[in-house]
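EI: anyone free to look at a 64-residue chain?
SC: sure, send it
EI:
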Amino acid sequence: MFPLARAKPAADAYRAVLDSVEQDFRGGVHEFVVLLEREHQEWGYAAKAVDRSAQDTIFSSVTG
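SC: here you go
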């Protein structure tokens, strides 16, 4: 679980160190950054346009 209010700061932090991540893992880290940014945008929209204040957590599963 991850609080949506922290999605943007986390995405920014991962993006800031992306160049120092081992090449084999950069694609996966980039995908995670994009996911966090998308969730932040959706959360911002929902907070303004829809009464979804209870939806404030990201649930994820890592498979591989």
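EI: The chain has one domain: 2-55.
SC: 👍
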